[in-house]
Amino acid sequence: MVVPLEEATPISFLWIPQLPLKVLGALFSDFGISGASAVACKDSPCDAAPCYEHGEVRVCVCPPPFRGPTCVDKASLCTTDCGISQTTGITCSSALCSLGECVDAEASPFFKCECGDFFEGTNCEIPANPCTSSVNPCGQATCTFSPGRGSGTVTCQCNDGWEVASGAGVVTTKWGNSEVIMNPPCSVRVSRGLAKISFSLSSGELMLWWTVFAVILCILLYCCYSVAAESCADCFKKLKFAGRVQKAAGA
Question: 123 CB contacts (<8 Å, ≥6 apart)?
C-alpha cells in the first residue's frame, strides 16, 4: 500500500504492493513533479517500512496489512477495508465469511473465518448441518435447515404418500456446541379408503395409472355402446316383426 505523507499531498494509494523505483518515479510525476526519480529517504518516518523521496515529497510503501501516512495504522478487512462500498448494504464480514465470524489476521490473506457448527470451508461457504448429513433426519421428506447464531431449525416437507406420526412433536438436539430444533420426521405412509390401504406413487407413476385408467374407460364405453347398439337393433327387429304378425292376423 502506498500512502504519501500528509504534509506532502492529500492523495492516498491503497493496497499497492512493493514498488520499484521507476514506478515510484511515476507516482511522484502524478504529484506534479515532472521527470522525478525517487531515492531512499535519508530520515524515514515510515515505521520500518520502505520510504522514498524526491525533494520535499516522501512516500511510505506500507506492507499489508498496514496503512496510513507513516504505516502505523493497521487495515481491517473484516470491518472497513475489504473494498466493498457501504452503500451496497453488504458488510465485509458477511462478504468474506458468509454467516461465519470474520477475524483479522497478521498473515496473508489477513483474515480468517470462524465458521461455527453449521458451516465449513475457507470462507464458511459449505453447509454442514443435520440436513447435509448422510442420514436424512426428516425420513421420507425434504429437509430444510435455517441457521442462526448458535442455534438452528430443521423443517420437514413430507413426500407424497407420507405423513408425520400421530403424537410426534418438536425436539431439541445438540449439533456440535449448538442447539437444533428438530421438527418431527415423516415416517408413516398415508392410509386411504375403508381398508386403510397405504400406497405411495410418484407423479410419473400416478400419470401412468391415470393413462391406463383412461384407456380402460374408453374400451368399456366402446363395448357398452356396441352392446347397446346391437340390443337396440334386435329390439327394433322384434317390434317390426310383431307389427307384421298383427297385420296378418287382422287380414
Answer: 96, 97, 98, 100, 113
Grid coordinates representing 79 are 470491518
Residue type present at position 135: V
pLDDT tens, residue by residue, 62-104? 888 888 888 888 888 898 888 887 788 888 998 899 888 999 9
Residues forming beta bridges with residue 189, ordered by sequence position: 162
Q: Is 31 helix (H, G, I), strand (E, B) or coil?
A: coil
**Amino acid (one-letter) located at 35:** G
Burial of 72 (0-12, 13-18, 19+ CB in 10 A): middle
Strand-pair category, 111-114 with 119-120: unpaired
CB contact set of 3 (below 8 Å; sequence gap of 6+): 12, 13, 14, 59, 60, 62, 67, 68, 69, 71
pTM of the model: 0.54
Do 52 and 77 contact (CB within 8 A), yes or no?
no
CA–CA separation, 235 vs 155, rounded Å?
67
